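Changelog-adjacent note: as of this version, every example in the card shows the full chain rather than a window. The one below runs 415 residues end to end.
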Amino acid sequence: MPDRRVSTWSAAVIGLLAGALLGALFLLVRERSWRHDWESQRQAAIDRLLADAARDTVRVVEAGGQSEPAEGTAAAIDRQRANAIVAATRQVAPTVVTVTVSQRVAVRDPRLTFFDFFYPERSLPRLRYGERQSYGSGVIVGADGYIVTNAHVVGQSPTQITVTLSDGTNYGAELVEVVDRFDLALLKVDGKDLPVADLADSDDLMIGEWAIAIGSPFGQLLADTQPTVTVGVISALNRDIVRQTQSDRYYLGMIQTDAAINPGNSGGALVNARGEVVGINTFIFTESGGSIGIGFAVPANRVRWVLEEVREFGHYRQANWGVMLYPLTNEIMSELSISNPVGFIVRDVVEDSPAWRGGLRVYDVIRTINGVPLDSRDTVTRLVYEAMVGDRIHFTAERDGKPFSGDIVLEEAQR
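Full-length structure tokens:
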């Protein structure tokens, strides 16, 4: 018969083991539950951080006033890179072309003949003729093939003009019109489906707004025919450049920018952040030949005016006044017995010209034009510079000390 004490001890040991096993199992289940809760809380915290970061990088879409979350750091950076300047450049760059001009030039023959060697004081210069190429930029402003550039880019008597598009296509160009007054020239190519630049209202420009200078001076010489781009701001408006010599052009009412206009970029586009051409880059102030941040462009409104004139009349119409004015000097004022120095005297007037029909005669003193006092030569130059055929010009004047007024209707000058 088995010992009852042994059975009781065995049962106690089995009970203890079972209890320990159950306790261990309970602790294991509890630990796993705690770890699961901790992982869940950790994941929830990470999700909250990511949500906060996404809200911080929200992009506002201006066109629709909508907001959309960023897709990640790279996507957000890419959207920042593709800014208004990049968009404007992509829009206008295909319309900017290279203008290659060939001209026949004469150079002195350096070789000496027997006569030149012994009688140098009697020798005459002998000339050789050859072709010289120069490069500039231009902008396509019409789907019918019109391209605008600077007058100084095409020169005086070009023998051949070639236009190179940004895709490398070459066209022979016809010189349609040169307007030296504005330093503008119109070319025309026989092309189809040409990209066309939009001309802005240059009177709407603001000092300090973005300005993008796009030029293509070496499209034929480089493997990559894409134009170059520099960025700055509109520095000033209505700049008048003082004429240094009689041969210099007048540059009045120009746009000033600090966007670099490098050599060869003359005739290229000055563009706003909307992707509109606000001016045609023309020249820079420089001592070294490179840009120092003082560049000038012809306003787009003048380009539009010249383009419209050529399309309607086949050429640019120069306005004719028919009068020659001279500033009042102390001697003239004394001779005419007048004391007011503001005004210009009529030195000559062509019979049956617009000024003659308007009532002006020699020795009349014009005081104002369109309400503007004629207090300087620059004022008169500016009024004449911007006058258009068909404009009605109102003036006030004096004759023998008696005031009178009249109107001059400008006509086209003889070509």
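Structural remarks: Residues 57-70 have pLDDT under 50 and may be disordered.
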